[in-house]
Amino acid sequence: MRNICRNSARPLLLAALCALATACQTTRSTGIDKGVCAIWGGITYSASRDTPETVLEVRRNNARRQAYCEGK
Known about the structure:
Layout: H1 2-22, H2 52-70
């Protein structure tokens, strides 16, 4: 009796896992919402007080913003 329960539980578990996996699909966007550009302002840094890593990350962030919001 115990083997019958184990054997029948495996297909049910597999079916449940398959159902969960298909529920996690990415939905494609129909467009780009540029409203975020109104609040995503450029960041400033201090060349004398910030580390070179911070300056680099700020420049990268600002370049991403410009490319996204201004299309450059």
